[in-house]
Amino acid sequence: MMNKDDAKYEAVTGVIWDIKRCPVPTGFDARRVGPCIRRLLENLGYTGPLTITAVGILTDVSDDFLRAITSTGITLDHVPYDYKSIVTVIYNWTDSNPPPANLMVISTAFDRTVGELSLEGYNILRPFGYDPLAFPSTNAEILWSNFLLADTEALGEDKCSGKSESVPWVCSVCEDVDGQGFDEFKSHLSSRKHELEVSKWFPEKQQHSAPSETHAEEDQEEAVEAGVESPLDSHPKNSTTMLSKQPKRKRKKRST
């Protein structure tokens, strides 16, 4: 009978890449990310099914960048909010993948969320030894760069290159509408259906305007995640320090 330690190496692995907090460093080929992650896991002995997902407000990311990463098999998840939506993506993945599944979150945030999942039996993996309590974000950027530099042969040997038109994508703005291929993803983002859903999330179309109450709430929740109380005046509706709750775990599951 396979023991717990052995089981994790054959279990499913999910990589959730927060492309805002851990962007590809200037001068690096975005196509290196997927191959480097796959080689790392292979070298560590993980042989189970693997999904790498780039998560964020993807309308803020260039088409060339997105096409480059999807060409190496990285899936896309376009979310309405930067912080709490990514927490929901993490929880949605765990709802569909129970322990001893392996989870890697590439970000300088979400350590509390990941820590709680570790206590539930998930095997937490890190591409580099980043500790947000011990190092500032600049150190994380250096470690991220070093990780991408560590394997110079990864891109040339990657077997998932050239797959941008078959890679899955999800639009969480539209209640988890999904599809395949980068061109289809771009077509969806310009569709009337997507435009209507965006108007429901942002009735005043303030998605890319100056910080609003929504952005302030996001900042508040991220501060709580990091274990730091926000300033007394950081929330427009409160004159005292408020500790926000974690996003709810239960949400419509994606079809598989």
From TrEMBL:
<feature type="region of interest" description="Disordered">
    <location>
        <begin position="200"/>
        <end position="256"/>
    </location>
</feature>
<protein>
    <submittedName>
        <fullName>NYN domain limkain-b1-type</fullName>
    </submittedName>
</protein>
<dbReference type="InterPro" id="IPR024768">
    <property type="entry name" value="Marf1"/>
</dbReference>
<dbReference type="InterPro" id="IPR021139">
    <property type="entry name" value="NYN"/>
</dbReference>
<feature type="domain" description="NYN">
    <location>
        <begin position="13"/>
        <end position="108"/>
    </location>
</feature>
<dbReference type="GO" id="GO:0004540">
    <property type="term" value="F:RNA nuclease activity"/>
</dbReference>
<dbReference type="GO" id="GO:0005777">
    <property type="term" value="C:peroxisome"/>
</dbReference>
<dbReference type="GO" id="GO:0010468">
    <property type="term" value="P:regulation of gene expression"/>
</dbReference>
<feature type="compositionally biased region" description="Basic residues">
    <location>
        <begin position="246"/>
        <end position="256"/>
    </location>
</feature>
<dbReference type="Pfam" id="PF01936">
    <property type="entry name" value="NYN"/>
</dbReference>
